[in-house]
Amino acid sequence: MTARSLRRPPAKAWTLAIVATLGIGAILAGAAMLAGADGLVPALLGVVGMVGLAPREAPMPAKAGMVALLAVSGGAAAAVGADAALLPLVVGATALATIPFTIRYGAVALAVPVLPAVIGALGGQGGPWSTALLAAFGALGVAVVVRLIGLKAPATPVKVPVAWGHGIVLALLAAVAVAVVLWQEWGHGYWMVIGLCVVLSPEHLKVRAETGARVVGTAIGAVVAIGLAVVLPHWLVLVVAGVAMVAALAYAAIDRRVELIALQTITVVSAGAAADPDTTWEIALARVVAIGAGAVVALIGAELVVAGLERRVEESEQNGAPASDG
Fold first, then answer.
1. Distance between CA atoms of 12 and 261, rounded to whole angstroms?
2. What stretches pass through the bilayer (predicted)?
3. How far apart are CA 174 and CA 197, in angstroms?
4. Which tens digit of pLDDT belongs to each residue from 113-132?
5. I want to staple 202 with a disulfide (CB 3.0 to 4.6 A). Which of 47, 92, 166, 231 is the partner?
6. CA neighbours within 13 Å on the CB side: how many for 22?
7. Chain centroid to CA 149
8. Tally of domains in the chain
9. In a domain? residue 172
């Protein structure tokens, strides 16, 4: 029986999820001790950006390179802030810089451009050097946690033409999305960039499945989170956010995408509701609209470009001229 065929996480998945949550909590606590509340976002985004590569069978120089990329992109975003001309360039350049990782290890760097997009949209918290160090701290921390837990995953190389096409499309779409969000001054609009980046895989068939999962899971999670915020006291809503985070990691272990995404949404919306109950509906609606919009844009990009590149590579291989796999 494969992990994907399981409907509920087994005991081992829950154990790993709890340990991983404690590890991430320790990373964020360390970031808060180093830089106060402003250190939480860069460190968390460093964790998110690194988590794709951390369990892969990759040499230490490659993982060090990912840490450096996250640090540099975070610092650059903090330097330019919410500049509608410069931040899209930083995000686009970050997406292009992930191409070598995609070629060698697969879709391990999809969330990396999210870091500069969010840091810049929030106005560059804490300054360039602090942001760079905290992003590196989060990335290194999650790499250590993954190693201690013993999580391992094989590298899944992507053909060079497909990886380049995917990287260029991701860079262009992410840059445009950031520019639009800043120009329109959309609150939580950076969630659109998150939806776009995490959905736009170099395998276009996965993009189709992930788009549906993102839209459905986000909607379900938002509705559940609103209901919980209405009936539960504020302190208990915060507890729910923590439990949902653990459950999301457990469902990630068995690759149940809709459940994972719904639980992620419950975590985000519940945390916001606990901080300010009056914004629950606003946060939930913004999450659904922004993530859904980003996912749809990613699907369009994948169907127009990535799918065609995959077909050309397949035709080239059938004609006896195999495309390079890096």
1. 20
2. 12-35, 66-91, 103-123, 129-150, 162-183, 212-229, 235-254
3. 7
4. 999 999 999 886 678 999 99
5. 166
6. 8
7. 21
8. 1
9. yes
Range of the domain at 18: 3-318
Cα separation of 267 and 262, whole Å?
9
**Residue 325 falls within a domain, yes or no?**
no
In SS3 terms, the chain reads as CCHHHCCCCCHHHHHHHHHHHHHHHHHHHHHHHHHHHHHHHHHHHHHHHHCCCCCECCCHHHHHHHHHHHHHHHHHHHHHCCCCCHHHHHHHHHHHHCHHHHHHHCCCCCCCCHHHHHHHHCCCCCCHHHHHHHHHHHHHHHHHHHHHHCCCECCCCCCHHHHHHHHHHHHHHHHHHHHHHHHHCCCCCHHHHHHHHHHCCCCHHHHHHHHHHHHHHHHHHHHHHHHHHHHCCHHHHHHHHHHHHHHHHHHHHCCCHHHHHHHHHHHHHHHHHHHCHHHHHHHHHHHHHHHHHHHHHHHHHHHHHHHHHHHHHHHHHHCCCCCCCC
| Residue 77, domain member (yes or no) | yes
User: Cα–Cα distance between 265 and 244 in angstroms, integer?
Assistant: 9
Residue type, position 293, single letter = A
Decide if 325 contacts 159 (C-beta within 8 A). yes
- Percent with pLDDT over 90 in the chain: 71
Q: Are 128 and 79 in contact (CB under 8 A)?
A: yes
Digit-coded pLDDT (tens) for 210-268:
999 999 999 999 999 999 988 988 889 889 999 999 999 999 989 899 999 999 999 99
Residue 24 lies in a domain: yes
Give pLDDT < 70 ranges for the chain. 1-6, 124-125, 317, 320-326
What's the pLDDT at 316?
74
